[in-house]
Amino acid sequence: MKLWNGFDTIKLGYYVEWADMGKLTEIIERAIDNDRRNVTTEIAGEPQVYDPVPRSRKYRWGFESGGISIHLSKQQAPDPYDPAPNVWVEWHPMAIARKGINACREETERRINLWGGHIGMHKVSEIHMTADCALPLLREHWFDQQTPLYATRSRSRQEITETTEMASGKTWKYLRVGTSQLMCRVYNKALELKTNYHKSWERFLWTNPQTSVATRVEFQIRREAIKTFGIDTLEDLQQKATALWSYLTRQWMRAENPIWQEIQEAWETPEQRIIRCRPRRPRIEQLRKQCFGCATTLHAMLKDATPQQIAEWIFSTKTAAGDDWETTKAKKTATLAVQGWQTRPLSLKFHVSAVISGGDDISPTAYRRNAAAGRPAAKATPVGPPRHDPGGA
């Protein structure tokens, strides 16, 4: 019997431009104790619990209120050369269960706006989809001796046993299939609620809170895997949630046991299937070398041509459909955007070669460091290809 199904955790990345980052930084620093302990402080007149442990070096401050955590970096606005968002948000299980996705989003964006932020866009970073059923987690349902009784597209799996005080032997507790980007966990939820009192409230989500037997199947899907399903925003997630669950339980992993049949039917039957597409994105360095090889071959075949004439000849080429360079570029830009490719400046993504700029070669990291310090970018140590005369043969 199904007990409950829904999202356990949702993580998002927001791209926010702050009206006055210096003022916000001053308010935050003044509100936090010097010893950086867990404290309840106020930002824009609202209480927030300060998290003293930063999520990463990028996100310096973290604040939690009502099951919604917001982590801020020190960036005034999103970095056009860094695809990572400057605000990271996590919705905890209690917030999602009590408020729902739409209310969590409204509360998150209200707080960001109240703190002086203008939201440009958001992206879904990680989701945990779950289903609980009132059936025991028995090893014989999943293994015949050491042979798995389930099929999965992942090569990675882990079986965990645990010795308990109530039994002299080992109790099967946990099955994990997949890697960090796409992972399935099957575990004894009733046992977890007994040993973790702070999660005991989850029992009241069940259709039968008194049951002593419960198995949870949880899928963890992170950003790189999420994109392969065509999910980018919360609207995409809500629209494709049931189809995603159907794919995960019927194609990515499946098993012939009573638990899995309940799990497959835990979410509503989708109106349409979801197709997982792994786009083969171009490798820019490889394309650059291919262009170099083609251009040098063409130059060698044309005796009297200069590199500039070769370049002009290439740029003036038209396709069979009659499209010129700019038209063809626009079409391919649109195709890459659908595949999730983000256009980036040449000078920051790659080494600035003397072939292009006529100056010293410089790495992207050195470029940012010199620019921040106000030093000329050309002072960096050359790391690119050997320089040569662009006008020579």
Tell me what the structure shows.
- It contains 13 helices and 15 strands.
- With about 400 residues, the protein is α+β, with helices and mostly antiparallel strands.
- The protein has 3 domains: about 1-280, no CATH class; about 285-330, no CATH class; about 345-393, no CATH class.
- An 11-stranded antiparallel beta sheet has the order 2-3-4-5-6-1-7-14-13-12-11. A two-stranded antiparallel ribbon has the order 8-9.
- Strand 2 (about 40-45) and strand 3 form a beta hairpin.
- Mean pLDDT is about 80; it is low at about 165-170, about 345-365 and about 375-393.
Order of helices and strands: EHEEEEEHHEEEEEEEHEHHEHHHHHHH
Q: What is the residue-mean pLDDT, rounded to a whole number?
A: 79
Q: Give me the count of strands.
A: 15
Q: Biggest sheet, open or closed, and with what strands and sense?
A: 11 strands, antiparallel
**Tally of DSSP helical segments:** 13
Helix-residue proportion: 25-40%
Quick overview of this protein structure:
This protein is of the alpha+beta class and 393 residues long.
